[in-house]
Write a structure and sequence with these properties.
The chain is mainly alpha-helical. A two-stranded antiparallel ribbon has the order 1-2. Strand 1 and strand 2 form a beta hairpin. The two termini are 39 Å apart.
């Protein structure tokens, strides 16, 4: 019931500023008790989708109040976003955080970290014909950099966002050998800058890699001005 109500709100079946149907109507529509309805409304409140107002009922809130890190809200919003604006925002957020973490990692990386990054880049060169396994090493490469930065909150945000969309075709895009080859060139530039302990270079390499990889995955429909802000 909760997931269905989230989807209805995001789709605009219940627009912002309007009230959800009263409890009896929801009980009948979903064949559940009042207790179940009240629990669902409580969850919707926690996600920022509704507010209970005395005398007005359960009012749907504007999208600016929704918890976009919530799995159900994010998934429903992506499914309804034909322009891919939400995924653009997700990539911009990820790029901002990962560029900063690459900057720090270039200062903090010891010999073991540098060797692990080198091994992952070399391994990905061997996996360009195996997109599934390549993607696993890709995530390990980025996560090694995030862990090295020591920023647990930024890493947690990036991992949470990625976990919500990692199996979404709209986010992952096409999986072709040429795309893996191009992607790993970006990884190698990041690795080289971290190995050289060049914070500015590492941050720039990460920024460019995430931007270019997303534009390619977006099948050439991305707005480069928006993404390069």
């Amino acid at each position: 019931m909760t997931a269905e109500l989230v989807e209805r709100i995001v789709r605009g079946v219940h627009p912002p500023g309007t009230a959800l149907p009263p409890e009896p109507a929801l009980c009948e529509a979903f064949s559940v008790s009042r207790t179940v309805v009240r629990e669902a409304v409580k969850v919707l409140q926690e996600k920022g989708l509704v507010q209970v107002r005395q005398g007005a009922g359960t009012m749907v809130t504007p999208p600016t109040m929704w918890d976009m890190l919530d799995e159900l809200v994010l998934a429903a919003t992506i499914a309804e976003d034909e322009s891919l604006t939400i995924l653009d925002d997700l990539v911009v957020t990820r790029r901002l955080l990962e560029s900063d973490m690459a900057h720090v990692a270039a200062r903090m990386a010891g010999p073991d970290t540098v060797e692990r990054l080198r091994a992952l880049v070399d391994r990905m060169d061997e996996l360009v014909d195996d997109p599934v396994t390549y993607a696993e090493s890709d995530r390990a490469f980025h996560d090694t950099i995030m862990q090295t930065s020591g920023n647990r909150i930024a890493r947690g945000v990036v991992r949470s966002l990625e976990n919500h969309v990692i199996n979404t075709a709209r986010y992952m895009g096409r999986t072709e050998r040429s795309l893996c080859v191009a992607s790993n060139l970006g990884h190698r530039r990041i690795y080289e800058r971290i190995a050289a302990h060049d914070p500015e270079g590492a941050a720039a390499a990460m920024f460019n890699h995430i931007t270019e990889a997303w534009i390619v995955r977006r099948s050439g429909t991305a707005d480069p001005v928006r993404l390069r802000r």
